[in-house]
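User: My collaborator sent over this chain with a note saying "see what the structure looks like." That's all I know about it. Can you take a look?
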Amino acid sequence: MFEQAGIAVQDEQVFAKLHALIDAAFDSRDVEVFLTRVTKSKLRIRDYEGVLRKGFWARKRRGSTKGCRFPIRA
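Assistant: Without extra context I'll predict from the sequence alone. Here is the result:
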């Protein structure tokens, strides 16, 4: 059986903001538009950093591009 690894979050505030943006992207009213954008950009949905670089997580509802930015650590 699968057991999730316990990974400590280093920056709780940034994690909370990113988690909220991901939840918003997968909202039933927005998920189709979000997935279409990701697919058209030739990214895989599991490529979180790539999707972040393109700004898809930062997009708010109804096409607004205002959102918070997150540091990408490779």
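A starting point for your reply to your collaborator: The two ends are 30 Å apart (CA to CA).
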